[in-house]
Amino acid sequence: MHQDSFDALLPADMARKAENLGVTKATKAPLSAFILAVTAGAFIGIAFVFYTVVTTGNDALGWGLNRLIGGIAFSLGLMLVVVNGGELFTSTVLTVVARASRKITSAQLARNWALVYAGNFVGALGLVLIMQAARHYTLGGGQLGISYMSIAQHKLHHTFTQAVALGVMCNVMVCLGVWMTFSARSVTDKLLAVVLPVAMFVAAGFEHCVANMFQIPMAILTVNAADATFWAETGKTAADFADLTWGNFLLHNLLPVTIGNIIGGGLLVGLLYWFIYLRPLEKQA
Questions:
Q1: What's its catalytic activity (predicted)?
Q2: What is the predicted pLDDT for the residue at 284?
């Protein structure tokens, strides 16, 4: 069937594009991949700043509508990544498509995942330090800081299984959004493809490991940096957020959410579409 060059790519062609992009990602120069991962970590952190700002003080809107607004704002992060070429761990797991087609080795895949994960963490923490230096948490009479800490506190109280499941659902949506960009013929196509999948996962409260690399450290440092004036203005105390610790973050959130993100994006999106569209070609070959 003839397909006009201006039409969106068809699903089978999207799968082949995912395979080729997986090879490109896994064989990219390590320094370039790491720096692009740093930018992606910062991009997702910027999106969480946007989310926190627009959802703070909006109680009159209602829980669902407020989260929808925040989700749309958060989609800025993935927009920045897909247009500017950032390396984001949650979409990098789609390189399993190239591995399933035996276009890259397991060592190449593992090296790429580790490099991107570390770069994302560095980028997210770098943005945390900038936002702390700016004392961003003091805006709104300190209510912005309370939002940072309250959101993070909620994230630390999922059970391990719950955090994994929330991570699975998050990266199903993220990778479906990214997968749809593989059909795109223009920047506009890419931007429209990612908005609603991202808005959905954020509004639904699903868990994204890279977003949490920014948001929870931002909350932890805020607890320790806030002065007496901040606590007096907000009517809270540091003791109210005593559970915001690095140990709780790493063990009760980042670890299970990362596992879930790998399952959701790598297995339920990447390998699923490989099985449907590319495995038959491999069998024929």
A1: formate(in) = formate(out)
A2: 67
What domain range includes position 50? 11-274
Looking at every residue in the chain, the average pLDDT score rounds to 95
User: Domain for residue 240, yes or no?
Assistant: yes
pTM above 0.85, yes or no: yes
CATH number at residue 184: 1.20.1080.10
In-domain check, residue 283: no
Q: Is 226 part of a structural domain of the chain?
A: yes
Say if CB 11 and CB 180 are below 8 A apart.
no
Q: What is the pLDDT of residues 70-109, one digit of tens each?
A: 999 999 999 999 999 999 999 999 999 999 999 999 999 9
Q: Is 105 left (phi over 0), alpha (psi -120 to 50) or beta?
A: beta
Q: What is the pLDDT of residue 28?
A: 96
How many CA atoms lie less than 13 Å away from 156 in the CB half-sphere?
Answer: 23
Average pLDDT (102-127) is 98
> Does 81 map to a domain?
yes
Q: Crossing angle for the helix pair 106-133 and 209-225, nearest 10 degrees? A: 30
Instruction: Give 94's contacts (C-beta < 8 A, 6+ positions apart).
Output: 18, 21, 22, 175, 178, 179, 265, 266, 269, 270
Q: What burial letters (b/e) apply to 72-92, b meaning 16+ CB within 10 Å?
A: bbbbbbbbbbbeeebbbbbbb
Determine phi and psi for 2, rounding to 5 degrees.
-75, 135
- Our measurement of the distance from residue 180's CA atom to the centroid of its chain's CA atoms, rounded to an integer in Å, reads 16
